[in-house]
């Protein structure tokens, strides 16, 4: 039986209309991750090791929605998550991480070294420290680009409440939206 590898850099896409200065590093990052995954598979590296290796690389590249470069919370902080599974009903997952450099590796440790499948927030961070997992100050994960993305989201995705239960919303994108929530209410 052969093998295959597929990867992605997070939610969204890399449109050709993105300026080359922003698009090309993302494409190169994905190409790099694909290359190391293919080389590891050619060397008969176990599939689970390849998954962790490739995801660690994605987490270390600031252009993707994982690790450094993660999407920020509304408070401008990072809360990262990861999950890994091996096809035998074993899995490990983490969420709410703020200092762990590679969440995927912590998820794997949970799968392999605990009876649990999921740890979050302070418990996950404490487990990471106990296992000697690399941690850094949370500012490591915040990039100028994800700060700018958050500013844009806060401006573009506002909800404004008006008197008489008239709720209007504004958002960016090509979606459709009700003109106002009051359109759904019966008239008096």
UniProtKB/TrEMBL annotation:
SUPFAM superfamilies: N-terminal nucleophile aminohydrolases (Ntn hydrolases). Keywords: Autocatalytic cleavage. One of its GO terms (molecular function) is hydrolase activity, acting on carbon-nitrogen (but not peptide) bonds, in linear amides. Its EC number is 3.4.19.5. It catalyses: Cleavage of a beta-linked Asp residue from the N-terminus of a polypeptide. Pfam families: Asparaginase_2. It is an enzyme of class 3 (hydrolase). Heterotetramer of two alpha and two beta chains arranged as a dimer of alpha/beta heterodimers. This is beta-aspartyl-peptidase.
């Amino acid at each position: 039986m052969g093998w295959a590898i597929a990867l992605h850099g997070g939610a969204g896409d890399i449109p050709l209309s993105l300026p080359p200065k922003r698009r090309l590093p993302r494409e190169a990052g994905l190409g790099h991750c694909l290359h190391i995954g293919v080389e590891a598979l050619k060397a008969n590296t176990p599939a689970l090791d390849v998954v962790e290796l490739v995801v660690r690389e994605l987490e270390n590249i600031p252009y993707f929605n994982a690790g450094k470069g993660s999407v920020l919370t509304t408070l401008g902080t990072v809360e990262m998550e990861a999950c890994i599974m091996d096809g035998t009903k074993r899995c490990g997952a983490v969420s709410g991480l703020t200092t762990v450099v590679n969440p995927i590796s912590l998820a794997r440790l949970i799968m392999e070294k605990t009876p649990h499948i999921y740890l979050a927030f302070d418990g996950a961070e404490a487990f990471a420290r106990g296992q000697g997992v690399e941690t850094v100050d949370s500012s490591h994960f915040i990039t100028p680009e994800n700060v700018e993305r958050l500013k844009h989201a806060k401006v573009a995705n506002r909800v404004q409440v008006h008197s008489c239960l008239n709720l209007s919303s504004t958002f960016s994108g090509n979606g459709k939206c009700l003109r106002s929530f009051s359109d759904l209410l019966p008239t008096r």
